[in-house]
Amino acid sequence: MSSKSHWEKIYKEKSPQEVSWTQEIPTTSIEFFNDFKIQKDDPIIDVGCGESKFVDYLIDNGYKNISVLDISENAINNAKKRIGSRSEFINWIICDINEFEPEGNYVVWHDRAVFHFLTSQVEIDRYVRKVKLNTENFIIGAFSTFGPKKCSGLDITQYHEPSLKKLFVDQRFSLKRTENINHITPFGTTQNFIFCSFSSKK
Ligand SMILES: C[S@@+](CC[C@H](N)C(=O)[O-])C[C@H]1O[C@@H](n2cnc3c(N)ncnc32)[C@H](O)[C@@H]1O
What we know:
Helix content: 25-40%
Order of helices and strands: HHEHEHEEHEEEHEE
CATH architecture: 3-Layer(aba) Sandwich
Bound molecules: S-adenosylmethionine
Mean pLDDT: 96
Distance between the termini: 44 Å
Shape: globular
Radius of gyration: 16 Å
CATH superfamily: Vaccinia Virus protein VP39
Number of strands: 9
Strand content: 25-35%
Low-confidence stretches: none
CATH class: Alpha Beta
CATH topology: Rossmann fold
Number of domains: 1
């Protein structure tokens, strides 16, 4: 099964309460986002949004230039339905992140539990290059080296601060914040995530 058909099936057949990654409020993402103190019309992208309520937080707090990307059209349609008429102001992008060609630069690029699905060095390097070329600030949440080895039945790459730093820190990007977080799934199990944020040096 291709990655796209895997995700289309998940979002067709399962409710948010039936998938491990659901959060009622994406607290850590919001806290990391608020570190940046950006303008309300600065461009923001949530990559691999699924049905995350991070976008709801952005809308509720007056951000006006929001893009949301996912490989699954079903995920995007479910999110649009939940958000209702306010979804008209969002730039919805149905696309595989491996093929995504950003049209402009973002001030914040957020990724929770998407980058970790890239397991080949070619895909990882391509994603890192895209982030570095196309955003000023980057928030990444991925399964940590204390976390699960699979997500949604698929192999993932685990990360810790040194491995994320090795990929994302360079002459332009520095590490801003790191936290290990225990995510409690809707089934009551625990998944350890590493969250890091990176910012371009001014
Ligand atoms: C584990 S879920 C996390 C969803 C969301 N970020 C959250 O925190 O609730 C992974 C998401 O990434 C999307 N995804 C997986 N591979 C992708 C790819 N290659 N390109 C774009 N989206 C992808 C899936 O459709 C799914 O919505």
